[in-house]
Specification:
The complex is a heterodimer of chains A (512) and B (882). Chain A is an all-alpha fold. Chain A is built from 21 helices and no strands. In chain A, α2 runs parallel beside α7, α5 runs antiparallel to α7 and α17 runs antiparallel to α18. The chains are: A mainly alpha (512), B alpha/beta (882).
Chain lengths: 512, 882
């Protein structure tokens, strides 16, 4: 405990010395979002393929809500493919109250400026300001619901990421000190703050937040489950995992890192090192109890939290299914929900262009190969789960990052919001991944692709001068950059572990 | 037995020979039988395989001829008493048949053509000037493909039997031919079975010379078989039919009537509206047999249990502003471009879709159109109430891009009893009618066959509505004062043809000229102004309706339309013939300007937005200042117009129905206030189209109204694009029905409603108008490179999988080795090259000692374990596999 306090103190000092006002920057980010929301630039972000996908688009959600209000199935008409719970939470927010009658709905940018009230010559300024306030209020009603919710979601995610980062930081510092590599700790950065700010200030996140879709909420739930796993809050972790998988299927892979996190604790160097180290030289450095606990962790994982997690997950899942069943009781029932949400994601029914690689493949591929390629695309994600879990066993948070990145590359309807999530998770490992290769190249690649992709989309869709291949080429380039990022980060993380092992062995040699 | 003779002479002149029978004669090659003095009565030539020709001429007494294997020339001439003619072939493959009966077979009773395995088209010419009185059997077996039965009116033909019916097109045509032309036809026996099984039996019978008995037996067996199987048999006993006809004489006979309505249009064009009605009494009272009613349509009704059906082929768009939007013709005959089909079925709900699919296929075969594309569930919809209330058994589909041409008109004309050979349909000169501005060919079918209580049978209305531009050059542009004279026209100048008398089968056959209310009032005003002495009939006998215009042929009567105050002039064409064809002229004396009666709101539809990602559809309704004064009978304080909108949108136009907005006079209205009723069935991707049905309530004083809907454009798989993908996709016309307005002429004379065209014009229908078809361009992928896309994408997958797995697999020891090898490689490219050239042994030798002792020992240990593992596996495999 002393050490934790000490570490905190040291970090505080470090932060201050760094001249780094986290809260200031976070507040600025939130303010920036609010400004963007209230003075919307007509970028039509809601319908950009990079920002909103058929699964996350709130415009489709509004259609589903409208159908539901007409006592039809929200999934009628292949428009809405999200969760029925999201529908009941976000649906009312998409309805614009229209002059007292709540009939018209729109979760879209205000199309017109307010018509000025008839000025009766009383007090022009007073009325003007009143009109402006009314306009602001109407604006607020118009867009606020969903957008404010995304802003809130984003800030909560940032705070949670900061929490995860601090946990990781403490673990990192401790681990290094126990291994006798305290000199490495000196230069370490506050990765939690950095990750949170990366999340908040990432243009991708900002676009997603302003762009009227449900991705910020889904990201928040994913981060929530990771936070719960990091802090050992089993029910929270189970809740987040169940909900995230329910909302967007792919976080279902996170069960592996969450279980490891719950069972074996947060990231650290390979546990073999500790056992070797403690067996030979542990008596001199650090307290025995810590080494002992690490040693037990190294040899086997705690079974109790895992069982608890299973129990909680089962509870939450059944609860969720019951809720969904109730909300869909009158229409299609759960079977229709699974078909329209998971089935839609897995069978790639919508071929509208996005930044992924699957839409064009399935638009062009011959009908009789379709099933085969569906299998290939999904197997590519599935086949990587086990090798990654074996190799990155000691780094569950990093494993979560890799899973999210992989699914963001290969998922059927990716958006930049997914990239925002994994990039902020990547930023949690600023210290470990300090020696990542090609970082500048990758940065340039991301910038280039995100500039080129809208241009190509515009050329193809709007001007008709380009070709589908142009846009697909940017999508391919984006996929390649993401792949390089994942591969490089994985290998540099492994190198980092290797380096620590080497250093600790030299240290060990020195000690002995 | 009759005296028989078996011989193989080439010429027979025996005067008293009565029965000639030649069997299995190898030597018989040519046989000629001639001479009026011969008393030969029966001739049978069977199985003479080397025979090449048979000529029978001028044999007066010959009663029956029977030939098998007639692949040779058979010439029959002047055999006046011949009653039985039997041709049969038993060979497996019959290549070529030359059979000519170019004679006066005036007494032929039994003609049996009996072939099997016909391979090619066999020209069988049975040339008779007049078909003989009693042909009892026309027997055919096998693939007999084509018959030439020219110039036969078959007035006396009573029984036709087709054995071995395959259902191929030529056979069908033959049957059709018989049904249409065989006026006295009593039985058509169609037997779909093959005669092969009977064959051997038959040969035996021949050898036993019990031919006559066998024929008796054979015919009976066919009869019994037909009754039992009813496979394709159409059987109607003459006596039964007679009694039934007597019993049901009050329910009416089949009827056919034709009419042509002509109307000058304000924009110097002429509307010609052909109307043909065929009516068949119900099956219960009348049976299955029809003289006039088209069999194919009757079978459609029978098979698919149709209650109502309407099929229209339209080219061009009806101009509601200029050609009128508020009269019966525009309401029921202005159709959306392309093909529109709707049908109401009298089957249980779960069978409606299946019936619809079959119906589309049948119609597509009947009318040579791609109506079968409507089979797909993405192409048709089932409107609930806005189109027509039908209790969910209505199916509606359109093909906006279907081109309409003569190939669709010809089958349509075939349904008429006189085709286009006689009657008003002779006017349908293809170049003239397709030159028009609007062309809509419609087929409307209504049947209450399945109302068991009162069944009035099937009514088939066929209309052809065309808008033609009279030839300006013929009359010359005559300028009178400031305005131009309307062009004069006649039937001949419009159609290039004249009417050569009526179709003899039609009950009534009239031409009408319709002058609208506005035109008439203009004309009378003009007459008043001129104050010229005007008599109804000129000195020359031609009619002068008004000083304004002149019709040379006097009409038989003038029909005043009650409330509309328009006039109809009737011209019967019964008295005209080929020598004295009917031609109706229409001459303008003075320029007249008038306008047609408009619908209360004029409807148009737009596509908004640019780009290929999204857009919106807007339907705008503009007031024509009519609604107020048309509806002033209602309570003045709350005058409201009801407008039904029915809109079908294909699935690739993904409509956001929540963006439905209603604007009245440019102001956004809450949906709840303006819409009385909305029903939406959203489109399902690749399954069903989206249907929007809504009833708007508009205040009468509203100048304009609009509804708008946003949509996203879908992206299709490359196979789903049509060949001309960049042309765009069509959104079918929306239908706007004005619920408060009904069209329908009102005649003071009640007897007029018996004439079919008037009964149609009298019908009270809700006013409706169709909007334009919209063309939506959709984004296209690159159609040329599926392989490239697949390979490139798979390369990316491989890059991901391979590199990530490689990064995971990489171990520290390997890396060190790699670093060292890199260091050694740094020695220089030349040395590296040399090393490569001289083999790797030196390099390996260099690298070998570098691993430390410890690692090499562990390496050995691992190697040992691996070897042991493999060996163990091999042993286990060996053990378990044996």
């Amino acid at each position: 405990m002393e050490e934790i306090a000490e570490a905190k103190k040291r970090k505080l000092v470090e932060t201050q010395s760094f001249g780094f006002g986290f809260w200031k920057w976070a507040a600025a980010a939130v303010l920036f979002r609010l400004i963007l929301i209230y003075f919307p630039i007509s970028l039509n972000l809601a319908s950009r393929p990079e920002v909103s996908t058929p699964v996350t688009s709130l415009r489709r959600l509004a259609e589903g809500y409208w159908l539901k209000k007409l006592s039809m199935s929200p999934y009628a008409g292949s428009m809405y493919h999200g969760s029925p719970l999201l529908l009941s939470i976000l649906g009312p927010l998409t309805v614009k109250s229209f002059e007292g009658q709540s009939n018209h709905l729109l979760c879209r940018y205000p199309s017109r400026l307010p018509v000025p009230e008839k000025v009766l010559g009383v007090d022009f300024y007073c009325i003007c300001s009143f009109a402006w306030i009314r306009w602001m209020m109407s604006n607020f009603q118009l867009i606020s619901g969903c957008s404010l919710l995304s802003v809130v979601a984003d800030s909560i995610s940032a705070v949670l990421i900061r929490g995860i980062g601090q946990r990781l930081q403490i673990a990192y510092d401790q681990n290094l000190r126990w291994l006798g590599l305290a000199e490495l700790v000196q230069g370490s950065l506050p990765s939690g703050d950095i990750a949170a700010l990366v999340y908040l200030w990432n243009p991708f996140t900002i676009l997603t937040c302003v762009g009227f879709n449900s991705t910020p909420i889904e990201n928040m739930i994913v981060i929530l489950s990771l936070y719960g796993a990091c802090t050992g809050l089993v029910p929270l972790a189970a809740f987040g995992w169940v909900l995230a998988s329910h909302l967007s299927l792919y976080p279902v892979f996170l069960v592996v890192p969450i279980v490891i996190l719950l069972g074996c604790g947060v990231d650290g160097p390979p546990r073999k090192l500790f056992s070797q180290f403690s067996s030979k030289a542990g008596k001199d450095i650090g307290s025995d109890s810590h080494i002992g606990s690490i040693k037990t962790q190294a040899t086997f994982c705690l079974l109790r939290p895992i069982l608890l997690f299973t129990l909680w997950a089962a509870i939450w899942a059944s609860y969720l299914l019951i809720l969904c069943g109730i909300s869909l009781k009158k229409t299609g029932g759960l079977l229709e929900m699974f078909e329209r949400t998971y089935g839609f994601i897995l069978t790639v029914k919508d071929l509208s262009p996005n930044i992924g690689v699957q839409w064009y493949l399935f638009a062009e591929v011959f009908e009789f190969f379709r099933d085969f390629f569906l299998l290939v695309c999904h197997a590519n994600i599935l086949f990587m789960i086990l090798p990654l879990a074996i190799r990155l066993y000691n780094r569950p948070c990093f494993l979560a990052f890799v899973y999210m990145a992989i699914s963001s590359i290969l998922k059927s309807y990716p958006s930049v919001g997914d990239s925002a999530l994994y990039l902020s998770l990547l930023a949690l490992f600023t210290n470990e991944l300090a020696e990542i290769q090609f970082s500048f190249f990758l940065f340039c690649g991301y910038v280039g692709v995100s500039l080129l992709s809208p241009v190509m989309h515009n050329l193809w869709i709007w001007r008709g001068t380009g070709n589908a291949n142009f846009y697909f080429a940017t999508a391919m380039a984006y996929a390649c950059f993401q792949i390089v990022l994942v591969v490089e980060s994985v290998s540099s993380m492994l190198n980092h572990d290797r380096r620590i092992r080497k250093l600790s062995s030299t240290e060990k040699a020195k000690v002995s | 037995m009759f005296p028989g003779k078996r011989s193989n002479p080439s010429c027979i002149t025996g005067k008293f020979l009565e029965w000639l029978e030649v069997h299995m004669s190898e030597g018989l090659i040519n046989l000629e039988v001639f001479g009026p003095s011969l008393s030969l009565k029966h001739q049978e030539i069977c199985d003479c395989y080397k025979m090449q020709s048979l000529v029978v001429r001028n044999v007066v007494n010959l009663l029956s001829i029977k030939i098998t294997k007639p692949e040779v020339l058979v010439l029959l001439q002047s055999i006046p008493l011949l009653t039985h003619f039997h041709v049969r072939d038993r060979l497996e493959i019959l290549e070529d048949v030359m059979l000519r009966c170019s004679c006066y077979l005036s007494k032929l009773e039994v003609l049996t053509l009996h072939f099997e395995y016909m391979k090619s088209v066999a020209p069988i010419d049975v040339l008779t000037r007049e078909w003989p009185k009693d042909i009892k059997k026309f027997k055919d077996s096998g693939y007999l493909l084509k018959y030439y039965l020219p110039y036969t009116r078959k007035q006396h033909l009573k029984v036709v039997e087709l054995v071995g019916y395959q259902g191929i097109a030529s056979e069908l045509e033959l049957v059709n031919h018989f049904t249409i032309t065989g006026v006295c036809m009593e039985n058509i026996i169609i037997d779909p079975r093959r005669q092969c099984s009977h064959d051997r039996q038959w040969v035996h019978y021949v050898y036993r010379k019990v031919w006559d008995i066998h024929m008796e037996h054979d015919s009976r067996s066919i009869f019994v078989f037909l009754i039992l199987s009813l496979a394709l048999g159409i059987l109607a006993n003459a006596e039964e039919a007679a009694t039934e006809a007597a019993a049901a004489s009050d329910s009416g006979e089949e009827e056919f009537s034709e009419a042509l309505l002509l109307r000058p249009l304000p924009d110097r064009k002429v509307l010609a509206h052909f109307h043909f009605q065929s009516r068949a009494p119900s099956t219960n009272s009348y049976g299955h047999h029809h003289h006039l009613f088209p069999k194919s349509i009757y079978q459609l009704v029978q098979k698919f249990h149709l209650q109502e059906m309407e099929l229209s082929f339209t080219q061009g768009r009806w101009n509601y502003e200029r050609w009128g939007g508020y009269d019966p013709i525009s309401t029921s005959n202005a159709k959306p471009p392309g093909v529109e089909l709707w049908a109401v079925f009298d089957v249980p709900h779960h069978q409606v879709d299946a019936s619809w699919k079959n119906l589309t296929h049948a119609l597509s075969g009947l009318f040579c159109a791609s109506i079968n594309f409507l089979e797909d569930s993405t192409a048709y919809s089932s409107p609930q109430w806005s189109f027509k209330s039908s209790g969910g058994k209505l199916r509606y589909g359109t093909l906006p891009r279907e081109a309409v041409c003569t190939e669709n008109l010809t089958p349509w004309l075939k349904l008429l009893p006189c085709r286009d050979k006689a009657g008003l349909s002779t006017l349908m000169d293809r170049p003239s009618i397709y030159r028009g501005y609007y062309h809509s060919q419609r087929l409307r079918l209504s049947s209450d066959e399945y109302d068991k209580e009162i069944s009035s049978g099937i009514v088939l209305d066929q209309t052809l509505t065309i808008v033609l531009q009279p030839d300006m050059s013929a009359t010359g542009e005559m300028l009178l004062g400031s305005s131009t004279l309307q062009p004069n026209w006649s039937l001949n100048s419009l159609f290039g043809r004249k009417v050569n008398g009526k179709c003899v089968l039609s009950k009534s056959s009239n031409v009408y000229i319709h002058l609208e209310q506005n035109l008439l009032s203009e004309l009378t005003e003009f007459g008043k102004k001129n104050k010229g002495s005007h008599s109804d009939v000129d000195i020359s006998g031609s009619l002068r309706i008004d000083p304004g215009l002149e019709i040379p042929v006097p009409p038989s009567r003038l029909i005043r339309v009650g409330d509309n105050l328009s006039n109809l002039y009737e011209f019967p064409i019964e008295n005209y013939s080929e020598s004295k064809p009917f031609d109706l002229g229409f001459r303008w004396k003075f320029p007249v300007v008038w306008s047609c009666q408009q619908a209360p709101l004029s409807v148009s539809r737009y596509l908004m937005g640019s780009g290929n990602e999204r857009g919106s559809i807007a339907i705008s309704l503009k007031s024509n200042d009519m609604s107020h004064h048309l509806l002033n009978a209602d309570s003045a304080d709350e005058c409201q117009l009801k407008v039904n909108i029915f809109q079908v949108v294909p699935w690739y136009v993904k409509v956001y129905y929540h963006t439905l907005q209603v604007f009245i006079d440019g102001n956004l209205q809450p949906l709840a206030d303006s819409a009385e009723k909305i029903q939406v069935s959203p489109s399902e991707d690749k399954v069903s189209p989206g249907v929007l049905e809504m009833t708007l309530r508009l205040p009468c004083e509203a100048r304009s109204a609009a509804i708008s809907l946003d949509f996203d454009k879908g992206f299709l798989h490359i196979d789903e694009y049509p060949p001309d993908a960049n042309q765009g996709f069509d959104i079918p016309s929306a239908l706007v029905v004005f619920g408060d307005f009904e069209t329908g002429m009102h005649f003071s004379d009640e007897s007029l409603s018996k004439i079919p065209i008037f009964s149609k014009l009298q019908e009270r229908n809700k006013l409706r108008s169709y909007t334009e078809v919209l063309l939506v361009p959709l984004t296209t992928p690159d159609f040329s490179m599926p392989y490239n896309v697949i390979t490139i994408t798979c390369t990316v997958f491989a890059l991901y999988f391979g590199s990530l797995l490689n990064a995971l697999r990489w171990r520290a020891g390997q890396e060190e080795r790699l670093l060292k090898s890199k260091a050694s490689k740094k020695a220089g490219p030349l040395r590296l090259l040399l090393r490569k050239l001289f083999g790797k042994s030196t390099g390996q030798a260099q690298e070998q000692p570098t691993p430390s002792e410890q690692s090499s020992s562990s390496f050995n240990y691992k190697l040992m374990v691996k070897v042991l593992l493999v060996a163990g596996l091999a042993v286990a495999w060996q053990y378990y596999s044996t």
